[in-house]
Specification:
By secondary structure, the protein is mainly β. Helix content is 4%, strand content 63%. The protein is built from 5 helices and 45 strands. The two termini are 23 Å apart.
Length: 808
């Protein structure tokens, strides 16, 4: 039984819905008598669907007294549609059967005689509902936050959906989660987060994570799981944690779906549609989305060079624009062979194209302030990419409750290409440039996962599994300089690169969970064999790397009440170098600030511990905690400077990083008008490396707040604010970043449609500033998006039914 189905049943049982009779059948007035009953009779029967006579699972069966229609008993049909009512007192009754997507059925003339002990009602047929959506919508929302033993589950309710177009918008509303300037998720303000989609690595959907998150429509998401100290069940990567984005898998019979159209300024438009169909054992779902996006930005940099014989000062100022179009589609089919075996197959396809341009002015001056050189760098770049993913999921349930076997496999193939043109203008002939960069990337990945859950006893469970992932990445970067005399482009082998990358990960895990009435424990171990093959084809250098890692985890909980508990978690994480971090290609798009990969990177290991309390109910709750993250051999971006004033940035293993502090998230429903949720933290961050001469330590604070307000005439408003305080980074500090968004929506057409208006970065305050200070240079920089995003969205839902009021 899925969680959404279970909640629907609770709603039916706790708040019986009185509907008028649409259909009834007559039964014989006499029934067989087998033997006297001491405590009352027993009613049995089976609920089936017309016209196929397939079982109707989890229907609500209520027994009403014939004299006044009061409820005397009630049960829910099992997965085969069967139901049993025991100890039914002698008398006359009326049976009412309800289920979402079907007409309510009343069965009259149910008589239980004093001497009868079994009344067999046989098969009772329900007719699928063919009326309008509003007649069968059941309103019952889940608690927003659910605290599990090793993660926090954030259910995506209608308020979050109404003001979100894609997954990126949703993530900003999740406690403890934020996005950096490039759209990559952060947990507690730090990157290195593993993002999963339905438990599978997100890179199966493409190589550019921000584009993937912007491509996924928000209304396809059921919940988001956030794991700050993940258990051994999850891969050991992700020093900051794991985010698992769970998509909807409705099994409601019938056809339903929706379309969404959004119009925004600066060419930020989107359109999406989804469709679900299910009949009997077969289900089909499909979705398609497209998005155009536009963003303008500005950048400044000021740097003093202490290495040169005469101290030099560099000033940079520039503007740019990024434009893109992306499309995403998926189709899936599922088939339930029986109540114990189910198969799902699916395919995803994504495509994106982008165009970027920038105009960067560089001025270098001496100690007296006189400008010694000036040049302007113009850049125009285009890129295209596509990715296709195929997946198969098989689920096997056993006779024993919660005993289950799952098998998943995915294969992904993708490619991307791009070209950039650089024109450098200057009055100094030696600084004039006309350059071309051609890029090509081909990648593929295979993912196989099998896990088995064995309930040893009713309170003890063993989970074990095996996972393998193999991927390859071939990257070609060709750089050309134009000969100004001949007008031809000449290949530059010094900064061109052909890079081949292969990896294979074999990992197995085992977790043991034990629960009592008050205590819970989950202990686990993951063993990973990681093999990496790096081929610097241009340099004729090839070598292999092999890591064997152990990732233990421990989680303890102590219940203090129905909704409150104490929790203690520990996990060891590993951050393995990514292909882009290893690729030694030198990016010279900014010739005064070049970037390169480091093929000599080693893994980073992080110890994470957390102790907290939580109390979440439907009306709200909170979850304060103390946390500590410690990593040695930390992977950090390091900037070095040469005497000519050119800086080189690349990832390196520099030393240790430590952060510890206090955090809390909270949610509160205030009457029927206001709902708020958010999170906040105060923490100490330290980055220390004797080799790199780094010693940065500072206290910081950050937090976010969401407010959802119900207004008259079916209007709803929302507001979001986020602040990431100053913190220590390698070689310096990063200043605080503030962001504010707002939205308002109105339901239309009997709540089948919604129109919403949203504004992101209202005050244009999302500015990223940093200050770096070493023995060789001092630098301050700024990057800021210069256009706020304004969006008007219309959404329409169609179909016979709607799922529990959670869709918006």
């Amino acid at each position: 039984m899925t969680k959404s189905t279970f909640l629907n049943l609770i709603v039916f049982l706790a708040f019986p819905i009185s509907l008028f009779a649409n259909h009834s059948i007559a039964l014989p007035e006499t029934v067989p008598v087998t033997s006297p009953a001491a405590e009352g009779g027993k009613l049995v029967g089976k609920v089936v669907e017309s016209p196929a006579n397939t079982a109707v699972s989890f229907a609500t069966v209520a027994l009403l007294a014939a004299r006044d229609s009061s409820i005397t008993d009630g049960v829910v049909t099992d997965e085969n549609g069967a139901f049993t009512m025991s100890n039914v007192a002698a008398g006359s009754y009326l049976l009412r059967i309800t289920n979402m997507g079907y007409q309510t059925l009343f069965v009259p003339n149910i008589r239980v005689s004093p001497e009868a002990n079994l009344v067999d009602l046989g098969s009772i047929t329900l007719i699928p509902e063919a009326q309008k959506l509003a007649e069968v919508v059941v309103r019952g929302e889940k608690s927003m936050i659910v605290d599990d033993i090793d993660k926090k589950i954030v259910n995506i309710g209608k308020d979050m959906l109404a003001t979100s177009n894609n997954v990126s918008d949703l993530l900003e509303k999740v406690p403890a989660v934020s996005l950096d300037e490039n759209g990559n998720p952060q947990v507690r303000g730090k990157g290195n987060v593993v993002v999963l989609i339905d438990g599978k690595p997100s890179n199966l959907y493409g190589s550019d994570l921000p584009t993937i998150l912007q491509s996924f429509p928000a209304n396809l998401i059921e919940r988001i799981d956030v794991m700050t100290t993940p258990s051994a069940k999850y891969e050991g990567e992700g020093a900051s944690g794991v985010i698992d984005i769970i998509t909807k898998k409705t099994k409601i019979r019938g056809t339903n779906g929706g379309v969404r159209i959004g119009l925004g300024n600066k060419n930020n438009h989107n359109v999406s549609g989804n469709l679900s169909y299910r009949a009997g054992k077969f289900g089909l779902n499909a979705s398609l989305s497209g998005q155009s996006r536009g963003m303008t930005w500005k950048r400044t940099l000021s740097r003093d060079n202490f290495l040169s014989e005469e101290s030099a000062h560099l000033e940079q100022s520039g503007t740019g624009a990024n434009k893109g179009i992306n499309a995403f589609g998926r189709i899936g089919m599922n088939y339930d062979f029986n109540e114990k075996n189910a198969l799902e197959i699916g395919m995803n396809y994504s495509q994106n194209s982008n165009r970027n341009n920038s105009n960067l002015l560089n001025e270098t001056s001496n100690t007296s302030g006189a400008i010694v050189e000036t040049f302007r760098r113009l850049n125009n770049s285009t890129g295209n990419g596509n990715n296709m993913n195929f997946n198969v999921d098989y689920r096997k349930k056993f006779d024993k409750k919660d005993q289950q076997f799952n098998f998943t496999t995915s294969y992904s193939i993708g490619e991307s290409d791009g070209e950039s043109y650089y024109v450098q203008e200057s009055e100094i002939d030696s600084l004039m440039r006309d350059q071309q960069n051609l890029r090509n990337n081909n990648r593929n990945s295979l993912f196989v996962n099998a896990d088995y859950t064995w309930p040893i006893t009713s309170k003890a469970t063993l989970e074990t599994g095996f996972r393998t992932r193999m991927s390859s990445n071939d990257n070609t970067n060709s750089f050309y300089n134009k000969n100004l005399e001949t007008g031809t482009y000449v290949f530059d082998e010094n900064i061109s690169n052909i890079f081949g990358y292969r990896d294979a990960t074999y990992t197995g895990f085992m977790t043991f969970s034990q629960k009592t009435d008050d205590w819970g424990m989950r202990v686990g171990m993951r063993v990973t064999d990681y093999n990496q093959e790096i081929n610097q084809i241009s340099a004729d250098r090839k070598f292999d790397v092999h890591f064997l890692t152990l990732v233990p985890s421990l989680a303890l909980t102590r219940k203090l009440g129905d909704a409150s508990q104490l929790k203690l978690n520990y996990s060891r994480r590993v951050q393995r170098p990514e292909a882009d971090w290893l690729n030694p290609f030198t990016d010279v798009s900014d010739p005064r600030n070049i970037q390169s990969g480091n093929p000599n990177l080693r893994p980073e290991f992080t110890h994470k511990a957390e102790m907290g309390y939580s109390n979440y109910e439907e009306s709200g709750g909170f979850g304060p905690s103390l946390f500590m993250d410690y990593s040695n051999n930390a992977i950090t971006r390091i900037r070095t400077l040469d005497e000519s004033g050119i800086s080189l940035t690349r990832y390196d293993n520099v030393g240790r990083e430590l952060s510890y502090g206090f955090e809390t998230d909270f949610s509160k429903k205030i009457g029927d008008v206001l709902k708020i949720n958010g999170s906040g933290r105060v923490f100490r961050s330290e980055v220390v490396s004797q080799i790199a001469q780094i010693d940065n330590r500072t206290w910081s604070y950050s937090g976010n707040l969401n407010a959802f307000i119900t207004l008259p005439a079916d209007f709803r408003a929302s507001a979001y604010v986020n602040y990431e305080g100053p913190r220590a980074i390698a070689q310096g500090t990063r200043e605080g970043v503030f962001l504010a968004n707002m939205g308002i929506r109105k339901d239309l057409l009997e709540k089948k449609a919604t129109i919403s208006f949203n504004v992101q970065d209202i005050f244009l305050s999302r500015a990223y500033k940093s200050q770096l200070m070493t023995e060789t240079y001092s630098q301050s920089s700024l990057w800021q998006q210069t256009n706020r995003q304004v969006n008007l969205t219309f959404q329409y839902r169609f179909g016979k039914i709607s799922a529990s009021g959670d869709d918006a």
